[in-house]
Amino acid sequence: MLRRPKPTDSEADLLREQEHFLTSGAPSSASVVRRPDKRRGEAGEGDGQSGENRGSQRDVVVIEDLPDQLPSLTPAPPKKSRFKASRVTFEDEDAEERLDRHDTHISAVLSRIVERDTSSTPVSLPAFTGMAFPKVLHRSETSNQAPLSSAGGKKSIFARQIAAQRLKEGKTPLHCSPEAAPTPETSMDTDQCDAAEPAEVTCPRLVSGQGLRVPNSSGETMRIHMENQAKLQAMSQSEILEEQKKLLSQLDPRLVEFVRSRKAQSVPSSAFPSKHLYDRSGTGDPPVQSVSRESGSSGAAVLFQKPQEVEMEGKEEEEEEELSPPPPAGMEEDLPVKPQKDWIHMDKLEPEKLEWMRDLPAPRRKGTKKAMQARFDFTGTLIPPTEDLPTHLGLHHHGEEPERAGYSLQELFLLSRSQVIQQRTLSLSTLANILSKAHAGEYVSVLKGSVVSTLLDAGLLFLLRFALDDGVEGVMSAAVHALKALLVCAEDEECLDCTFSWFRGLASFPLLPSAQEEEDEEDEALDESMKETAKEKEERKSDHEVATQDVVKGLLKMKLLPRLRYILEVVRPPPRVVQNVLEILTRIARHCSSSATQVLDCPRLMETVMSEFLPTSWTPSSQSIYGLPVASAMKLLRVLASSGRHACARLLNSLGASERLSCLLSAEPDELLLEPTEALRITTEAYRLWAVAASYGQACKLYLDLYPALMAALQSVHRVLPPSDPLLPLQLQRLLALLSLLTQVTHTAGCHQELHAGMVSSDGEECPPPPPVSWGHVTGLQASLMGHLKGFIKNLDDPLQKNSSLTVIPVYLVYLEAYYHQLSRQNCFKPVETLQELELLTSDVLLPLMSHSVVQGLIENLKSSSIVCNGQAVPLGPETTPNLPGLSCSGWRDRPGLVVSSSPFPLLTGLGLLSETITGIHKGLSSKFTGLLLSEPVTGYLHSCSRAKPSLSHSKAWLLRHEHHLLFLLLRLAHRLVPLDPEVAKHASLYHQVALVVLPWLLPGSEYLAHELLSTIIFSKDFISEGHSGGPETVELGELKLHEETQQHTSPSLQTVGALLREACTQLPSIRGCFLTHLAHLESSVMVSRDALLGRNPWIKTHLLPELSGPILPSDWPFLPLVSLYERVGVSDGGGLAVEELPQGALQVVTHCLQWLLLLEVWREEALKVIPPVAKLARLSCVFLCSSDLFLERPVQKLIWGLFRLLTRRPKLDSLDLNVPPPGLASFQDLYSALLSQYEAVSFGDRLFGCWVLLPLQRRYSITMRLAVFGEHVGMLRSLGVTVEELSIPIERFTSPPEDSLPLLRLYFRSLVTGTLKLCWCPVLYVVALSHVNSFIFSQDAAAQEVETARNSMLRKIYYLTDEVLRNHLLLFRLPQQHLQLGFDMYEQLPPIRAKHLERVLGLQDSSVDRGDWEEQKNEK
């Protein structure tokens, strides 16, 4: 087979292929022919031309299926004249002479004109009328016009009027021959001809006779036509039909179609009545009589043409001015309008196009349970299906459901791609409104599913990105608005701004989607060095793949930033669009530090923002926002600075943010030549940006430069503004930002001394340089701010100023905490003076504040405002999509929460911070805060927290972080007071319970809090009061009481649980060291978190918290040492290592972990409820899997026995569901298979391991595990010697209900009959197998034939068993009895029903199975 040439073939290869082709003799795919050029007058190959002429012809390559004529080109190629070649011209010939030679006289033209003789033509004068001008002809005057049949088809209105006049005068129209002149009957109206017979055809309609070369061609045609008519008249109907079929079978189908088309064109208007008559008759075939009159010798093929097809084909050929016959009466009645003859362009009726003129059907009056398509108005409001809106609103259209007002999402997408600018703009604006309302949660209760998710799945992101590239500014602005509505939630930004001045309010979580690990199958077999990095995988993904996982990343990959820069720099849109662009950039900067870096690195983007929207000088202008300071631009700088200290340094130094801060903050807001609201907003954002910079230890020189301006701003704090003043909230926000700045400057100044000492003694090690501001620069602020705080506390009594005071007091408390915390670290610290100062602060400020009625009323809202306690009551809205996380703060002012004005969390957090610092310096003041900790609202709040199970998401994490701070501070206060105050010590178990619950809740960024809880409260003897108040003895008494009630022989370890608890309490310090050692991998995170929480500003790298992938510690952290040991040695070595071969201290680690677990199970059971029972069982199984003999060690075995008995109590056993996969495992069956293999290998018949293996074999669990024991691991039955008495699980859980799996029953029976399963080897499973086999063989339930056959076969085999003991056990088994020696009860003799069933199965008629024989055999045994 010949191959196609390749690009890599050389010339030799091509020649070799050509030779191979020629030798093969295969036909070529193209042939060369000579095609004559007709314009040159050349003939084809058949003409006898000379060889010379043939040589001048062109060679034409003809390819199969290629059209002969070339397609028309635009512009057309130059034409070649056919006569040019025949003309002979000379170069020296004069053009004028050549023109005179070819010129002819006008007589050559005029001589051929013959004038018509008009002497006998009558002259008719127009009729005289009383009008000054002739009457204008109107289209409605159709009576004066000739019908279509007489007018000839293509005639103007004037020509048709003349033809009608000639018909009226009895003359023949000009275009018809006398032979073909129509009779008056042919031009009658169709309505009069409907019932009449069609007129006889007097001349042929398809044959004109022009091709006949005879003198009288028309007469010859008529003669042939008459002969055909005579032949048709002489033929019967059946003969006509037969000839018709014969002709249709012989003729070419294309010829038949041609004849049909000619016939359709030639049908006169008088033929339509017959067609409509045929239509109304319900058949498609015309009568034979009309067939015979209309048929000719060459026209028989058109006899059975359907009228509808003829009418449709005729319509395709007619011109616009021709009038088609009117539609049937039924069709006219169905039309929404009845066409009139004088309507222009209504001669062709198109019913499907007239449907839109019908009246709209009435909207749905009643609701329906059926889901309907959502429709929205232009403001994004959902229109109910039952609402009847007027049509002038522009919400009705001719798409689907025209009776319903509004546009669906699909229709809006369609309009967004319209070529009409207004439609594109309107659709994008409507989508923007829909997105805004979706983020506000307005569709949650009325729509099924998420609007935002639906739009994103439909490709909204790409639609908006394409619309941004639109050249029309209106469309571009609408696209920016829609993109802002998609990405930005204004209420989220408001909440973040409100919490900025809280403790650690500068920090925030990156708004990244939850991390989804993707395993690439191609990389699994490669080495680590050969695998692709995450960046390479990201670059390899398409835009759609990236956008599906992360919307912001997808936009960045689609080059959004350069386009936004172009819009700001070149397009210069209106102020609203500029604000939207700046808010979009702010949302991108919140995404992650990488996104913020891309914003900074985008060419000319930040330069444009700084020069156009943050100028150093400006003049007031109301026309444009360009050239004026914009608060949104300053906020963008603040969010960018929060992403990292290096980004902040770039903004301050390279982009000139320091000069902008000096320019905006050196004057009062009313002196900035801006609107009052905008001046307050931009100065507030300037203070916040400065606070962020100061939190890194930067921009501190500005503090020295602008110190007078800061003092002036502080002096104006008590300027009273009426509560109704719209500027009051902005003034308060400005004050809070200023206090945040002073707090951060104080922290930075407090580190100056440490940095200076570290720089001197670092000896070349990396150490941040000391800031220019020192402690002496900030000491003067404390007295002024203390006076302000006292004034605001007094204002709490004023109802008009109460809310304002409650807003600012928490920030003053945070400042005082920073001041005293840093003061205690200075060399100038004077303990005596400071202690006296703290006593005055506590007695004069803090205690009156805590006892104030307003504050007490605020604390009453603690529980209702909590996110932890009400986490389940506020479910996550469906409008938050995984690839575009948000804070879900919509409507935050209308519901309880941490941020609303009635929330006590900011105030209590400030009090907790200050009390922690004060009591750390002055231990004697701890008792002053007992009232706060023992207050009823705080105690009730802690009780609710100890039972709460909050869920984690982006919408809650940013608030949970602040609530965790308050819980930690309350626990720290309890840690100081429990050893000192007996009343507080009574609640020690509550505080310990809360600490255990809070620990696995702590989020990334709070590692220092977790470390402090583990180091102080979690393992503290003071908080485990049961250990030194008779707790172990109480447990022992309870176990003895349980033993007396159940009358069961228990394992030897049960009575030692009290002793084990007593030993665990003495080992609490060692247990704490064990867990802290296993959490050592978090040390670096703990140090970073410590720097941020303790105000070590020069060491802070970023205010973006770590990615929110989950809590710091897993919920099952008490099992961490066991899991860690299994991962180190159990997985790699298969659990075959002895205790001596384990890592050093492994036995001690396992012992401490089991002691802690036992303590929690007995005294802190509530704290472990977050761990599913199946997870506990799986984690404890690591003790058996990580070593070959670790479980045999006496301390380990005692602890495992105690935990096993606790886990198998009735309530715990009921909640144990092994069908649910444990966290971290695919299924429990996989773990159980490993346990079985380990048991066979190393158990040595250990009773503890045996109980562990028997637990999953209960009847309600998966049959897979029972099949594994009796199938793959049947050999273990010989060593599974756990007795029924030793098993702490009721035997009925294994035997009830009866087994219905035939394969498992066969395995039971086989193991019993073959002797694999014996009572002395495996008592528990022997009883289980007996019970199920006995129930199966004597079951009376109807079953399938296969089951009945197996049942009868099994019964026969049992009857003929030679082992009489086993036969008696199988036949006389009654019930399992755990207290009996055998473990089950037996019948003395076979019950009558069972005996009859046995006789029927065995076919014994003489009752050979005597009951006395059974008794005798039983007595013998």
Notable characteristics:
two-stranded antiparallel ribbon; 1421 residues; two-stranded antiparallel sheet; 69 helices; disordered C terminus; mainly alpha; extended
Shape: extended
Pairing-aware structural class of the strands and helices?
mainly alpha
Largest sheet, strands/sense/barrel? 2 strands, antiparallel
Q: What oligomeric state best describes the polypeptide chains here?
A: single chain
Structure summarized in a few sentences:
This protein is mostly helical and 1421 residues long.
Can you give a write-up of this model?
With 1421 residues, this protein is mainly alpha-helical. Helix content is 52%, strand content 1%. The chain has 69 helices and four strands. The protein has a two-stranded antiparallel sheet with strand order 1-2. A hairpin with a 7-residue loop joins strand 3 (1373-1376) and strand 4. The radius of gyration is 50 Å and the shape is extended. Mean pLDDT is 81; it is low at 44-57, 174-200, 268-325, 517-525, 1045-1054, 1404-1412 and 1414-1421.
